[in-house]
Specification:
Strand content: 15-25%
Helix content: 25-40%
CATH topology: Undecaprenyl pyrophosphate synthetase
Order of helices and strands: EHHEHEHEHHEEH
Number of helices: 7
Distance between the termini: 35 Å
CATH class: Alpha Beta
Bound molecules: farnesyl diphosphate
Strand order of the largest sheet: 3-4-2-1-5-6
CATH architecture: 3-Layer(aba) Sandwich
Shape: globular
Largest sheet: 6 strands, parallel
Oligomer: single chain
Length: about 220
């Protein structure tokens, strides 16, 4: 069996998904939350041990208050409604990012969910909320503890929605990550898409700067 993977996902495309259907952007975020559930349910049997999800970037405060308020309400509601299910299924929830700019009810839901799910061993879900990788690195550096303060190395980074950029997500942890970019909009992403991305990842030869482990036939002998 493989070692457990750390998969990180930039869940992009909720707004476009809704706009394409003539719906308000919030409808995209609501359906996106359903996709989050599907991916969490599917992750353990696909060999994922840690799943880091980019739910709200520090830069997302630039959006209208109507949308950021709605997203905050959605986070609090989901932490409350999914906590029990997480407990039953051994899912540990942690939230990374700044807390001081979050509404009090979101902070309370985070603390309670983190405490109650702390013993979960099937899957660790790290939700990035008000998160900036640069800020996290700067803070860790100020405390002289970069590797300890930041998370585990990312094996596979998935970004939905067609863009091909990191957007200040896990800059340090993605040093050796494999990337999968898909045009699928986040609300349409499901267990099969996660399985396909992981199958793609597993077919890659990760060399970490060393020479190939699996030469392709005799022609690939070293000819330096
Ligand atoms: C990106 O789509 C998505 C977000 C900024 C919010 C992510 C939130 C969720 C997936 C729903 C709730 C999550 C949890 C954990 C309950 P976008 O709005 O940038 O889409 P666009 O690029 O099409 O405008």
């Amino acid at each position: 069996m493989h070692t457990k993977l750390h998969v990180a996902i930039i869940m992009d495309g909720n707004g476009r998904w809704a706009t394409l259907r003539g719906l308000p952007r919030l409808a995209g975020h609501r359906t996106g939350a359903k996709a989050v559930r599907q991916v969490i349910e599917a992750a353990p049997e696909l060999g994922v041990g840690v799943l880091t999800l980019f739910a709200f970037s520090a830069a997302n405060w630039k959006r209208p208050a109507e949308e950021t308020d709605a997203l905050m309400a959605l986070f609090a509601a989901h932490l409350e409604s999914e906590r029990e299910e997480c407990l039953i299924n051994g899912v540990r929830i942690r939230v990374i990012g700044r807390r001081d700019r979050l509404p009090q009810n979101v902070r309370d839901s985070i603390v309670r969910t983190e405490q109650e799910t702390a013993a979960g061993r099937e899957l660790e879900v790290r939700l990035a909320v008000d998160y900036s990788a640069r800020e996290a690195i700067a803070q860790a550096a100020a405390n002289a503890s970069i590797p300890r303060a930041l998370g585990p190395d990312v094996d596979l980074l998935i970004r939905t929605g067609g863009e091909q950029r990191l957007s200040d997500f896990l800059l340090w942890e993605c040093a050796w990550a494999e990337f999968v970019f898909t045009k699928t909009l986040w609300p349409d992403f499901g267990a099969a898409d996660l399985a396909a991305a992981i199958a793609d990842f597993r077919a890659r030869d990760r060399r970490f700067g060393a020479i190939p482990q699996h030469p392709i036939g005799d022609t690939m002998q070293l000819t330096l």
